[in-house]
Amino acid sequence: MIYKFKSKADGDLVMLEPNGRQILDILGKTTGAHGIILPAEIPGAISALEAAIVQDNAARRAATAEAKAHEMDSVSLQQRAKPFITMLQRCAKDNVEVVW
Fold it and tell me: Which Pfam families does the record cross-reference, listed alphabetically (predicted)?
């Protein structure tokens, strides 16, 4: 499954299922085929993602040398969430929702 996040304030944002599910789990949203983030929820969503990024970055720094060598090929939560946070910020500015 692919998550396709849409809003009137930004272009579509497409994520593979594991990554989209991770983002939605952080936001406390149902990971079904459809959903919505209302404008009033956006500030909290941005804060939740930013807090999760801080935790993810700390966990990555605490990893062993072997794990660090392996994660060089992986993409961090910060890299995956940045476009989503940008979308949320634009939606907050325009007072529009995000749907998937």
Answer: DUF1840 (PF08895)
Nearest to 57 by CA among 33, 81, 85, 30: 81
- Number of domains the chain is built from: 1
- Range of 85's domain? 2-51+80-99
**DSSP assignments along 36-47, one per residue:** EE-GGGHHHHHH
> Does 45 fall in a domain?
yes
pLDDT digits (tens, 9 = 90+) for 22-71: 999 999 999 888 999 999 999 999 999 999 999 998 888 877 655 656 65
Q: For helices 77-94 and 42-62, give the axis angle rounded to 10 degrees.
A: 170
Q: How far is it, in rounded angstroms, from Cα 25 to Cα 30?
A: 7
